[in-house]
């Protein structure tokens, strides 16, 4: 500072100006820049690009105001109100007084223009409900192009007195109110025939199920037609006749009829379509059902033949099945495979009196106490032309089951005809036997053969019955062919069958797995007409008395194969001959030839002496031969009227060869003889623990 003081006055002045300049320059450098100019808004799209006053419009883009008040939207110069706003999207609506033109947006002093918006004119398309009854032929035209409703209907319109209401292709009708809908009666008809390119649309004013009542066809006029028609948002109220709620319904009272082809029936309350008893579908194909709150289709048993594979029935309904009500199947037809099951929804027997065919892949579900039965309601053994032909494939089984899982969840199937078309191939039948399917007193089953019935069963699974898998209830029933079946997980025996029917069973089927009684339950009837061979199964045959209290009689040739196991109830047994006469020569033969590894076993239900009656021989046939057999526990009581008691009893002029067999635990003789002269050849046998001795003199 001393040096500064020493400067001349002029130098001091120059130095002062210099310092002032430096100070001001530095001060200017520290001053902030002014605010940048905001980015201009940009409109990239508007949706929709046309509509009436009040239509909600979404504007998308960039650099919009963040608040509603920061934006100003105009439709061709008319300012619109804004509902929502952010920097990239505005939601507004077409203002009153707007005209077609550019949509613009102003944010502050910046302005953007978007696409042109077409303001549609208001149309007066509300139907005059004072004309709610149509009694003369009438046509409704496609008045407006695009999605504009041609008619808005707020009442129930009835077509009657043989008049026809024709809807032109492309017609759009909006229905409003729970009473609104279209109805035909007294010969009136609704002819709604669109095209694939111009379908007819019948829908609610709001897009919710049950906005309007629906279409109710209550006439038998053949001009009732729905073709290329879309029916949506219907099903608000139920019919006063049926209590059923459906978008499209065919009346019960007037036995109505209709053609329904290539229609879309979706998003309705109740059923998509309900066809009442007595009504009929003249044609039903190419239809699409989706998202109805009950089943897509409800109808009666006899109408199932109308549901062909050309229809699409999505599984997205509230009830993902065809609802089947009860009437009689009285004319031949086929149940076709569709996307969802058929559910028999009434707790009754469903009768069929004509040919019933079922395609591969079909699933039939039955509610509790529902079942499928041939013939007339009044009689178990009425003459009938009915037949059941259910032929699946290895990859596409046919299923009969309860609507709920478990044993005895439905009645089962009753067969009482001898038609050669009775076939169950590649089927699965489960959960039957809830109660008897025929009037006769018997234990229930998945499948019951009654009267002179016959059937072929192959490659099928029969399971989860509350009683038997199969009941051959009558002596005259017949398994025409029975092969490679699985009878499993039934509460009682896999089969209930009569003695003379045993030859109808095959060794390739399985009978043991999971059944409550691991044996074939045999009613001891007589073998009187055909020769029979009994084969070894994976379970024993358990033989009881006949319904008349008799043991099994054999009047023809009976052959028993190696490995067969026969168990007998206390008073049961096998006897050659006639139940009324002890000595009829050459009546019946018994040929039971086992092997050392596969002996044939005859025994009682319990071990010990005298647990069953035994085997009676009273014919002189040289075919009577027992080899490699184990016979134990016979002799519970006398065999013939004249006596005889043991494991084996020879009566009259009986001839028998016994070798390499074990004869033990008889309640009397190992081999007894009674009356006449006998020819017994025995060798290499073992006798043990027979109460009266081995061989009677």
Proportion of helical residues: under 10%
Radius of gyration: 44 Å
Largest sheet: 14 strands, parallel
Gap between N and C termini: 163 Å
The secondary structure category is mainly beta
If you average the pLDDT, what whole number results? 91
**Gross geometry:** elongated
Q: So how many helices? A: 2
Q: How many beta-strand segments?
A: 67
Biggest sheet: strands side by side, in what order?
10-13-16-19-22-25-28-30-32-35-38-41-44-47
Low-confidence stretches: 1-31
Range of strand content: 35-45%
Describe this structure in words.
- The chain contains two helices and 67 strands.
- With 697 residues, it is mainly beta.
- The chain has a 14-stranded parallel beta sheet with strand order 10-13-16-19-22-25-28-30-32-35-38-41-44-47, with no helix packed on it. The protein has a 13-stranded parallel beta sheet with strand order 33-36-39-42-45-48-49-51-54-57-60-63-66, with no helix packed on it. Strands 12-15-18-21-24-27-29 form a seven-stranded parallel beta sheet, with no helix packed on it.
- β6 (82-85) and β7 (89-93) form a beta hairpin.
- It is elongated, with a radius of gyration of 44 Å.
- Mean pLDDT is 91; it is low at 1-31.
Fill in the keyword field for this structure.
697 residues, 2 helices, 13-stranded parallel beta sheet, mainly beta
Give the gist of this structure:
Helices cover 4% and strands 41% of the residues.
SSE layout and pairing:
Layout: H1 2-5, H2 9-29, E1 42-47, E2 50-51, E3 56-62, E4 72-75, E5 78-80, E6 82-85, E7 89-93, E8 101-107, E9 110-119, E10 133-134, E11 138-140, E12 151-153, E13 156-159, E14 164-167, E15 172-175, E16 181-185, E17 189-193, E18 200-204, E19 214-218, E20 225-227, E21 229-232, E22 246-250, E23 257-261, E24 264-266, E25 271-275, E26 280-285, E27 288-290, E28 297-300, E29 312-313, E30 322-325, E31 333-335, E32 342-344, E33 349-352, E34 355-358, E35 363-366, E36 371-374, E37 387-391, E38 398-402, E39 412-415, E40 423-425, E41 427-430, E42 445-449, E43 454-458, E44 461-463, E45 468-472, E46 478-483, E47 486-488, E48 495-498, E49 519-523, E50 532-534, E51 540-543, E52 552-554, E53 557-560, E54 565-568, E55 573-576, E56 589-593, E57 600-604, E58 614-617, E59 625-627, E60 629-632, E61 646-651, E62 655-659, E63 662-664, E64 669-674, E65 679-683, E66 686-688, E67 693-695
Parallel strand pairs: 2-9, 10-13, 11-14, 12-15, 13-16, 14-17, 15-18, 16-19, 17-20, 18-21, 19-22, 20-23, 21-24, 22-25, 23-26, 24-27, 25-28, 27-29, 28-30, 30-32, 31-34, 32-35, 33-36, 34-37, 35-38, 36-39, 37-40, 38-41, 39-42, 40-43, 41-44, 42-45, 43-46, 44-47, 45-48, 48-49, 49-51, 50-53, 51-54, 52-55, ...
Antiparallel strand pairs: 1-3, 3-7, 4-5, 4-8, 6-7, 8-9
């Amino acid at each position: 500072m001393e040096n500064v003081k020493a400067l001349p006055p002029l130098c001091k002045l120059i130095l002062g100006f210099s310092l002032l300049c430096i100070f001001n320059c530095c001060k200017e450098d520290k001053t902030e820049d002014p605010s940048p100019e905001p980015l201009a808004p940009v409109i990239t799209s508007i949706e929709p690009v046309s509509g009436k006053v009040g239509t909600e419009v979404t504007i998308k883009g960039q650099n919009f105001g963040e608040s509603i008040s920061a934006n100003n939207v105009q439709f061709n110069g008319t300012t619109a109100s804004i509902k929502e706003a952010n920097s990239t999207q505005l939601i507004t609506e077409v203002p009153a007084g707007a005209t077609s033109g550019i949509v613009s947006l102003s944010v502050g002093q910046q302005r953007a223009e978007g696409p042109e918006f077409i303001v549609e004119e208001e149309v007066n398309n509300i139907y005059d409900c004072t004309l709610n009854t149509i009694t003369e032929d009438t046509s409704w035209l496609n008045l407006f192009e695009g999605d504009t409703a041609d008619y808005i209907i707020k009442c129930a319109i009835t077509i009657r007195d043989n008049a026809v209401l024709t809807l032109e292709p492309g017609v759009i009708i909006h229905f409003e109110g729970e009473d609104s809908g279209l109805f035909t009666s007294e010969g009136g008809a609704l002819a709604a025939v669109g095209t694939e390119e111009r379908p007819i649309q019948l829908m609610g004013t709001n897009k919710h199920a049950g906005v309007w009542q629906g279409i109710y066809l209550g006439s038998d006029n053949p001009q009732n037609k729905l073709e290329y028609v879309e029916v949506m948002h219907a099903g608000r109220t139920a019919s006063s006749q049926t209590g059923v709620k459906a978008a499209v319904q065919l009346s019960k009272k007037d036995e109505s009829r209709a053609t329904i082809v290539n229609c879309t029936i979706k998003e309705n309350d109740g059923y998509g379509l309900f066809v009442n008893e007595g009504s009929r579908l003249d044609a039903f194909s190419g239809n699409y059902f989706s998202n109805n709150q009950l089943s897509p289709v409800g109808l009666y048993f006899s109408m199932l033949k109308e549901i062909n594979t050309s229809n699409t029935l999505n599984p997205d309904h509230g009830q993902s099945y065809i609802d089947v009500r009860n009437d009689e199947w009285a004319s031949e037809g086929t149940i076709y495979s569709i996307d969802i099951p058929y559910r028999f929804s009434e707790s009754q027997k469903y009768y069929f009196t004509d040919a019933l065919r079922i395609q591969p892949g079909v699933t039939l579900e039955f509610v509790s106490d529902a079942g499928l039965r041939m013939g007339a309601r009044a009689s178990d053994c009425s003459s009938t032309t009915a037949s059941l032909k259910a032929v699946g494939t290895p990859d596409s089984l046919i299923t009969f089951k309860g609507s709920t899982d478990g044993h005895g969840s439905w009645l089962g199937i009753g067969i009482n005809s001898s038609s050669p078309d009775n076939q169950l191939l590649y089927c699965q039948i489960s959960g039957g036997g809830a109660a008897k399917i025929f009037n006769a007193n018997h234990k229930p089953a998945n499948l019951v053969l009654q009267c002179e019935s016959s059937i072929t069963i192959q490659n099928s699974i029969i399971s989860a019955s509350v009683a038997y898998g199969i009941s051959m209830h009558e002596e005259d029933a017949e398994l025409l062919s029975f092969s490679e079946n699985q009878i499993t997980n039934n509460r009682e025996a896999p089969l209930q069958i009569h003695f003379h029917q045993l030859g109808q069973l095959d060794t390739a089927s399985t009978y043991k797995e999971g059944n409550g009684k691991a044996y074939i339950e045999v009613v001891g009837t007589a073998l009187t007409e055909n020769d029979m061979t009994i084969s070894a199964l994976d379970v024993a045959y358990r033989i009881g008395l006949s319904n008349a209290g008799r043991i099994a009689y054999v009047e023809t040739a009976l052959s028993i194969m190696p490995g067969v196991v026969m168990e007998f109830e206390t008073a049961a047994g096998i006897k050659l001959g006639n139940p009324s006469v002890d000595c009829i020569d050459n009546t019946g033969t018994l040929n039971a030839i086992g092997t050392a590894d596969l002996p044939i076993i005859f025994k009682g239900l319990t071990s010990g002496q005298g647990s069953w009656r035994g085997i009676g021989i009273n014919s002189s046939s040289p075919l009577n031969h027992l080899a490699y057999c184990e016979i134990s526990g016979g002799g519970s009581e006398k065999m013939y009227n004249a006596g005889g008691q043991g494991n084996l009893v020879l009566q009259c002029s009986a001839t028998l060869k016994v070798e390499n067999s074990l004869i033990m635990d008889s309640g009397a003789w190992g081999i007894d003889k009674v009356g006449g002269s006998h020819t017994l050849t025995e060798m290499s046998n073992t006798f043990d623990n027979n109460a009266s001795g081995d061989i009677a003199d």
